[in-house]
Specification:
Order of helices and strands: EHEHHHHH
Strand order of the largest sheet: 1-2
Shape: elongated
Distance between the termini: 46 Å
Length: 106
């Protein structure tokens, strides 16, 4: 019999419990079910993640934009007011090119 237990990082430091590799697959297949049952929720979560990613990534570089305009900058086709807004839009475009995340599944 093969022991499928793997030490968790905390166990490696002398404390914590074992977890099972089989536990990792508990959600396997459920994501597709959720996609079919709650596509609107997933769309909202995806949009929120994209906005947070764009804001946080640009904030690290010292780029800040008006929070009331962020949704329009990321998802809209509005004219941009300044270089900071162009940077946020550029981040969105880069994500779209890398994984086509804005076009697939919506």
């Amino acid at each position: 019999m093969v022991d499928k237990r793997v030490k968790s990082p905390s166990k490696l430091n002398g404390c914590g419990d074992f977890w099972y590799i089989a536990d990792l697959s508990k959600a396997q297949g459920k994501q597709e079910l959720f996609t079919h049952q709650s596509p609107q929720k997933l769309k909202i979560l995806r949009e929120h993640a994209l906005i947070e990613s764009a804001v946080s990534s640009n904030r690290i570089e010292g780029i800040n934009v008006d929070q009331s305009r962020i949704r329009t900058i990321v998802f809209g086709k509005t004219l941009l007011k300044d270089r900071n807004e162009e940077e946020v839009r550029g981040y969105r475009d880069t994500l779209a090119e890398k994984g086509n995340t804005l076009k697939k599944g919506e």
